[in-house]
Known about the structure:
The structure holds 2 protein chains of 2 kinds. By secondary structure, chain A is mainly β.
Amino acid sequence: DAGVTQSPTHLIKTRGQQVTLRCSPKSGHDTVSWYQQALGQGPQFIFQYYEEEERQRGNFPDRFSGHQFPNYSSELNVNALLLGDSALYLCASAIGLGEQYFGPGTRLTVT
Amino acid sequence: SQQGEEDPQALSIQEGENATMNCSYKTSINNLQWYRQNSGRGLVHLILIRSNEREKHSGRLRVTLDTSKKSSSLLITASRAADTASYFCATANFGNEKLTFGTGTRLTIIP
């Protein structure tokens, strides 16, 4: 049984560009959450998707947006990238409000 | 923003010794969870303790929770080199719709 998968593993972008990160949840899971983890810090909650709707959002600007597809996979989009967006982006999936299982993350570097 | 802090920020011990790390948080919680992260990759769920529980065990792990002091501790007994990682506590207010992480403790086990 595959766990949570994320793509790509690493990504390098230039300031001002846009990026899309992808997440496939664990089989049977219907909820996807996204977290941003800056170097040396704990993860910070970006938003959570359930039944293709954004259920809750953390303190992130509108440049951060997401989507959940009917197969429960999800995308995180970041527009107008800033240097400060460089981080590890983690996706977590769950069944409803159950335990969250994390993927390996996507390392985004903005230059 | 981070919910709280782990203490200490870094800890180095000899293999076989016990490791204790602490977590403080700021608001009322439904549950508190501990995660392990190796080399800045995905998070592995270790243990969950609910707000009405005071102590929980899982293998070599022992977690305590003091809601009056808004603090928790994680004890790893008989440490192994493979326990070298960063450890984070995370709190949830209602179910698991949003996890708020601490700043983490970096644990190094010296063989």
